[in-house]
Amino acid sequence: YWLLKVKRPVFLSVIVLLIGFRYIGSLYKFSGSKDSEQANQISLMSFNVRLFNVYDWIDSEGISKKAMKFISSENPDIICFQEFHPDPDVFNEAYPYKFEDVSGERMKHGQAIWSKYDFLNKGSITFENTANSAIYADLITGSDTIRVYNVHLQSSGISSQADNIDQNSSKRLLKRVTETFKMQQDQAEKVVAHMKSSPYKIIVCGDFNNTAYSYVYNLIKGDLNDAFEVGGHGFGRTFAFRYFPVRIDFILSDQDFSVNGFKTYDIRLSDHFPIKAELTLDSD
């Protein structure tokens, strides 16, 4: 009887909240696993570095040096960079094995994988009509070999400050976003097709430029584990959007990996925040 007395907008709002509650874990974790050092543990960081601030989006000098100092302090075994830009200050002797797939006449940029583990194989997945791409590397980690994918899907071009979103531009924005999602779908399908051919257990990370509620995320994720959902804590914000937290950067792993810990770093070196997962490949 009381349901009939509730105003329709309020009732609908409650229904939406109840439906949405099941998805809260995709953005917010009330508790997570504590970081615990395990034998044969692998630590992997994913970070969209936005060309190391080459165009001075952030009002701070020496971003590339600060980024290298940050990486040294966190010391991950593997780093996957998106929007990587070669720079004299961008180096770290702790990573002797590097795959930097960059292109561009005026500004070279692309994706990169730095590793403490030797490469058995490496390659690129080219996307049509865009500078975005995916790369992969087969890494020899002790007695195991794993494949790491570093993915950068198409961007909608929406600023993290969102100042360019207004009523007059809403139609253009809708058209652009629709076109972007179609490109993302094509790109994600290429990545998934390549993943299916992998002879090794896989880790997929990168900037998907879409949320955990999206089709492309769920297509790539499949039955992989989302490290944030397993080991994260609090808001999983990875993009510095002005109005609300957005998680568009991910680390996904084969179910044979245990997630021992996950961290999102609140450090302003880009318009994205770096993320890191601690993983262990379970023994057969």
Can you describe what's shown?
- By secondary structure, the chain is of the alpha+beta class.
- It has a single domain, classed as Deoxyribonuclease I, Chain A, CATH 3.60.10.
- Helices cover 24% and strands 31% of the residues.
- It contains 6 helices and 14 strands.
- Strand 4 and strand 5 form a beta hairpin.
- The chain starts with a helix and ends with a strand.
- The relative contact order is 0.18.
Largest pleated sheet: 6 strands, mixed
Global structural class: alpha+beta
Number of strands: 14
Instruction: Give me the CATH superfamily.
Output: Endonuclease/exonuclease/phosphatase
What is the count of structural domains?
1
The helix fraction, in percent, is 10-25%
**What is the residue-averaged pLDDT?**
88
- State the CATH class: Alpha Beta
Output the number of helix runs: 6
Shape: globular
**CATH architectural grouping:** 4-Layer Sandwich
Order of helices and strands: HHEEHEEEEEEHEHEHEEEE
Briefly note the CATH topology name: Deoxyribonuclease I, Chain A
* Order of neighbouring strands in the sheet with most strands: 4-5-3-2-14-13
Main features:
single chain; 284 residues; Deoxyribonuclease I, Chain A; six-stranded mixed β-sheet; 31% strand
List the helices and strands and how they pair.
Layout: H1 2-5, H2 8-21, E1 28-29, E2 41-48, H3 63-74, E3 78-84, E4 97-103, E5 109-115, E6 118-126, E7 133-141, E8 144-152, H4 170-196, E9 201-207, H5 215-221, E10 225-226, H6 227-231, E11 234-235, E12 249-253, E13 257-264, E14 275-281
Parallel strand pairs: 2-3, 8-9
Antiparallel strand pairs: 1-11, 2-14, 3-5, 4-5, 6-7, 7-8, 9-12, 10-12, 13-14
Helix pairs in contact: 4-5
